[in-house]
Amino acid sequence: MFYKNQYHEELYNQFTSILNNDDTYYKSFAFVAAAIEKKGIMTALDDCNIDKELLLDMSKAWSNSERAMLEIAWQLFNDVNLYEIEGEIQFPTIKSLFNSLDSENLKVVIEAIGMKYF
Fold first, then answer.
1. What are the tens digits of pLDDT across the range 83-101?
2. Does the reported pTM lie above 0.70?
3. Is residue 1 domain-resident?
4. For residue 29, which of 45, 55, 77, 96 is within the disulfide window of CB 3.0 to 4.6 Å?
């Protein structure tokens, strides 16, 4: 598996442990969310549960790239948009998501897509 660094791997292991679910939806979410490298994400995770409202609230001050990563993580988990405000989607296309990512985060996303679908 491709990890950006040791911290990414540590957070992934912590997130998957908290979620307590071996399902590919949870694992792909945890993998991308851990790559954001925000330990506070753990507060939105509970046994087989991810708190969407808490994620939205904590991500308000994040960079566009970090929010794009969270959007991808959420869509891998739930197949719906996370950032839909008053009917408008912040990242309406794959291109708008991927253009927000550097090469390392793009590798993480590709790895997570493989985790979910292959």
1. 876 666 777 788 888 999 9
2. yes
3. no
4. 77
